């Protein structure tokens, strides 16, 4: 498969071409690591690195992200905000809304969101992971720099995986061409980021909630050291915190450093 061609991508970005500065690499360790290095050297907001292959792709919670060159779209986008990171509550959820909007705009069916920032594909009664988002923030006196790494499975990944996985080709009759796909996603994620600048996550909350895969479903929340927390997933609040109805009342989960599993049986939760 040939690499993403930045000139061709510009034609797909249309009037927004000037907002993004895209570099396409055959291989790198991780598009996010490479972008972090370039950000340190002063790369402008809107810089995008897309790589055909990553030798050390990174996922959330220290996991690795594997994708075969022909079977995935892996890229990172640099953005900057004027305020501190504390004003960016819900940012990762906003990126999920942007990504879902971009895919749906091309005609994808069955795209759903899972807190804090997984993109799932509805498959019958269940869901399989379609894409992952890794957000890395750094703040200083001038504001907050955000590196947004996105990995989309174009084909269903092969092999043993910790959770069911899907390919974007399963969401379309005919999978869109990769330049068209990347352009649509960049534009939609860019719009979501602008919306966060103006309204915070609040302006996107309803859109997130409408696509929420596990709304009102029993879930188990796993943090590294704690015992799993069982509850009913009530969705998110205006700051993007997960609302979990547990035995001891509604808990507001802020940390993204947890993993969420749907469970088959309804836990004992007293409805308030
Ligand atoms: C996750 O679901 O754990 C997040 C996965 C994020 C993977 C993408 S691929 C492009 C970018 N570069 C990386 O090393 N990671 C992100």
UniProtKB/TrEMBL annotation:
Record's catalysed reaction(s): biotin + L-lysyl-[protein] + ATP = N(6)-biotinyl-L-lysyl-[protein] + AMP + diphosphate + H(+)
A Gene Ontology cellular-component term: cytoplasm
Domain BPL/LPL catalytic: residue ranges: 17-197
CDD domains: BPL
Pfam families named among the record's database cross-references: BPL_C, BPL_LplA_LipB
GO MF annotations, alphabetized: ATP binding; biotin--[biotin carboxyl-carrier protein] ligase activity
Name the record gives this protein: biotin--[biotin carboxyl-carrier protein] ligase
Native source organism of the sequence: Candidatus Dechloromonas phosphorivorans
